[in-house]
Amino acid sequence: MGLAAAVLAVMIGAQLRFEQHPTHIVIAWDDPPERDREPARPQIADPWPTLDAQQERLQGMDELLKLTAREVLAVEVRESAELARLIRQFSVAQTQNDLRWKLILDEFSRRDRELAQVRLTQPIE
What three-state secondary structure class fits 77? Predict the structure, then answer.
């Protein structure tokens, strides 16, 4: 009996309250929340300054992209011209090399024919 009286005294002194809901029971103390007060609404900032900043950022990125594309195209044109020059230079060097080898082979053929006509008249010592 003494325990029940102590629990009752704590309940009255602490202003305990019990709320029964369909899925659960709530034991709370202190004053219940005000039901008349509207829930706080979130503050929504004006989106236009943010959108304007994003638009400026996108325009800056667009300009940077255009400049980069122009630079890439300019580099590509320069590199294509350099490649064409190197191909021409290689072709000239290859032609010169082919002519040198032809002259060398012609010279060897001439010497082979001369040696074939020469007869040894004296023994080799």
Answer: helix
Residue 29 to residues 20, 32, 37, 77, Cα–Cα distance (Å): 14, 8, 20, 81
- Cα separation, 91 vs 99, in Å, equals 12
Q: What are phi and psi of 44, to 5 degrees?
A: -105, 120
19: enclosing H helix or E strand: strand 17-20
Q: What is the pTM of this model?
A: 0.42
- Calpha distance 125→122 (Å, rounded): 9
Supply φ then ψ for residue 97, to 5 degrees: -65, -40
How far, in whole angstroms, is CA 37 from its chain's centroid?
Answer: 51
Residues 22/37, Cβ–Cβ less than 8 Å: no
Residue 123: band (very low, low, confident or very high) from pLDDT cuts 50, 70, 90: low
Predicted confidence at residue 125, as pLDDT, reads 63
